[in-house]
Every structure is written in C-alpha cells, then in structure tokens.
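Q: Is it fine to ask for two folds in a single conversation?
A: Yes, each is treated on its own. Send the first.
Q: Here.
A: Result:
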Amino acid sequence: MCEAGRGAGAMVRLFVAIDFPAGLRERLRTPQEILKQSRARLSLVDPAIIHITLKFIGEVPPELVEQIIPALETISVEPFDLRITGIGSNNPRKPRVIWCTVKDSGRSAALHDRIEAVLEPFGIPREGRPFQPHATLARVKQYDPSLTARLRDIPPEDYGSCTVRSWQLKKSILTPQGPVYETILEVPCA
C-alpha cells in the first residue's frame, strides 16, 4: 500500500488530513467566488482538495514513511460528526489565510493529539500552538483593503456537515499548477 516508501530516496512531503465529501467541498465554491471579487491577489484552493490538516509532517526520507505508517495504524477513533460553520481568517485587519471554521466537539483536536503522540518518537516535533480545526480556502498573495469588505460580504452560513469515517496520510507533490495530493494510507474510524 505504501508506494511512497520505495524508490531512489527522494524526500517525501507528508501531512495527515480529514477529507470532506464532494458535496461539502462544492458548497465552499460560493465564498471563494465572493473572495475573487476583491482586488487582492489570491491563491484559491481547488475545492476538490479542500481538507482539514490534522498534522503537517513535512519532508521525510522514504524509509521513515515505512515506519510512520504502522504507527498511525495503531490509532483508533470512533466516527464523529463535523460541521462547517462559517468563514474566517488568521487576521481580520490584514488576512494572509482565509478558511472555513469547523465545529466537531473537540474530536479532531483529540485525534490531532494522538497523531502527535505517535509521531513524536520519530523526531517529528509537536505543534507549538493549540490545534484549531479549519480548512483553507485561499491564501493571500497580495493584500488589498477590498478583501476585508468581501470577507464581510460572505453571509454567516452553515455550509453543512458530514460524518468522519476515516482519515488519511497524504503525500504532497508541489507543482506550478498547485499541489497534487496522493493518499498513501487511509485509516478507518472504528
């Protein structure tokens, strides 16, 4: 199952994520369309790959991937519900990242903590700040004040909910057209 661990020893860029179902991702196009009306230069995330990052691992050697996989497979969590409750940003005055906010009764934060605990023995450091579940919609390449107005134009809305039945270890390949993600491990919720 782990093809990423084979090959010539090139580093592998990894992260752990929760994918959204297609219908939920498609509903997130609406706020992206409003954001595009600003004069800011934005890098919009393709709705097909919008996800919650539970843990960004970074670049690791292929042999470490082979060790990480069985460690992640030891984590067992029950399925849980999450809801996308609105649109936010890292800084209301001059945002650099725009995301959708997620509510899930702390379940993804608990999963994040367990992932951090099993990865730490491999030299993968814990995050320095508290985990807040969110899914990035856009990165701001060049800010313009019109962006703040467009953010206010996005109506407060419930974008829907889903039941998390699995989570994934993904390989990220950076290309000029944007990142390409490959799932190398899917861990079902028990």
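Q: Second one now.
A: Result:
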Amino acid sequence: MPVPSYRVPVKVARGTYSNLSSNVGSLEEGEICYANDENAIYVIEGGALTKATADLSTSSIGDLSDVDTTTAAPTDGQLLKWNNVNSEWEPGDILLSDPSPALSADLDVVTYYITTTTTNGNIEVAANGTGSFVVRGNTNSGKLVLNCETNTHGVSISSPPHSAAATYDLVLPGTAGTANQVLKTDGSGNLDWVDQTAGVSSIDDLSDVDTTTVAPTDGQALVWDNANSQWEPGTVSGGGGSSARSTVTQTTASLANGAAANATFSSTGKSGQFIKITTDRAAWVTLYNTIAARTADSSRLETVDPTAGSGVVLEVITTGADTVQVTPTAGYYNDESTPLSELYAKIVNKSGAASTVQVDIVLLPLEA
C-alpha cells in the first residue's frame, strides 16, 4: 500500500519513567508515552503508566528479570534450573537437576574420574538391602587398586582366576588386634587376630624329640622309642649281617631301695647277641622281647626263675658297680607284632639307698 501523501504526526510524551510518572495527571487517558531511560513504551490506563512493550534494551538471557546468571556464573555444560525459593532460573548441573537420577545405559567415564569438590568430601557407594559393591572382571579377574597419594604406584587386591571356581566371604575382625599378631581364619571365612607361635629353632623344640633326658654322643642318630612315642639319640648299627657291636644305655629316675622302673633300650636291632651288661650300682635287670611280656612278669619275685617262653631274654643281678660278661653268648629278638629295634627292661634298685640306676648293654645287632 502506498504511503498516503497526507499524514498527521503522532505526538508522544517523552521523558524518564520517573518524570512521566510524576506528571501522569497532565497526560490523557490512552495517551502513549516513551520512557527514554528504559527504552520502553507505556500507555496511560486508569491514570497510571502501563508498559506496552518488552524491555527493548534486553540483549541476553541474563537481562531477563527472572533469570540470575550473575550470582553464580554458568560453567561449560550447565543448564538453567528453577530455584523455587528465589523464584528465578539459575545455572546448574544436569545431574543436580534430578533429585533421583537413574542410568538407562552403562556410564562411560571415558578419561575422567568420579570426584567431588567438597572439601575433604567422601564419595560413598551404597548398595540396596543385602546387595554388594561389586568390582567386575573383564579380561582379568576383578581388581581393587589402592594408589599412593601421588598416584605413581599402588597395591592391589585381586579375585582368584575363573579356573579356581572360588566363591567365599572373608569377614574382618572387630578390632585392629595388638602388635605382632597375625590373621587366622576359622575355615568359614571369619578372620581373627591371634598371637604368633614361636618358631622352631632346634630339633629338640619338636614335641616328639627328646635329646635332654639322654644327650646324644658323637656319631649317634635319632631312633624311635615306641614306648615313649618319641625320637631319642641312639647308636645306629649296620644292616643285616653287620658285625659292628654297639652300646645302648638307660638311666632310671631316682628309685627307692627295692623299687623298680621300666626302661626301653633303642637302636638294638630287631635281633642280635648280648656281649656284656654293666650297672653303676647293685641292681636286678631283666630284659624282655615285648612290652606285654614285661607287664606279665612284673610281680615275679627275684628268687623265682622266669618261666620258659615267657619273653624273658636275659636277666642279671649285680651286687654293686659291676660288669657281667654274657657267656656263653645269649641271643635276643624283638617279638612285637611289628618287630622293632628295641628291648624292654625292668630295673630294680638294690643299692640299699634311694638312687638312680644306669645300665649299659654291649651287644651285636644282627637284624637292622
């Protein structure tokens, strides 16, 4: 449409909003006014200024009256979220805008970390109910790595490999324990702190070895004493057909005069020949081929000869420190169900006073 050649100019009251407002009584109803300090147009309605246009000076979202991007400047990736308390839109993070965020797919942190800007703040992971925090495996078993403070090295805890088919729980103790204690398990995964058992520093520290009662001499070895269920020093004879004679010794504890004690001579060979017997004081010494034979003969009097076939292989009576030559030579053998390299003795103190009694037997083992 062509511009008419005759135009009537429209007069508009101009001035600051404050000036227009203070002189609104001189303006007519419906009159248009321009507030030059606001760059906005007003209309007189009901004797008051009514804005007819938006603020023509608005050039960014932060200029809007219900948007605050000044108090907290936005950072990369943030969005505007509504603050109901301040009745305005403010910059905020995407996750913080959702009070209960839920993933719909795997979360890929790419090359970033899960962290917090809270001073000394914790990062907590909470499972639901009896659920667990699980470190999944991939090409290797699940591994938890604890780094040093500069993240240049660390230690790790790994699950056993798939081939182990391992499924178990380890429950830590309720306390930190005391110095030098170690962790032990009850076999069901419950761990506890216990004191360390002192290590074995010598062979005599072993519960089944006795090298104190009779100290070993040069060339002896440990031999088994079936009666005492322990290893003791003894002289090792040769194998079958050996002609090497040896000496075996036993010493009783202190015995009252006339009292008896049992003893076991080891390293005798399963069979052999007696050569001589020495006592360090008056004694009655009886040797048997089984423990049962010694037990059955325990009540026999010194003046009564042993019954033939009763298991007595040799008997001597001395009147003091004496050596009895066994002539003619007498043989012996162990007759237990599993033959052992042992002879069993009953030793009676006949010295006239309480004393120990030492008995030395020189013999020739024939069967190792």
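Q: Anything structural to flag on that second result?
A: Two points. The CA atoms of residues 200 and 206 lie 7 Å apart. The longest helix spans residues 17-22.
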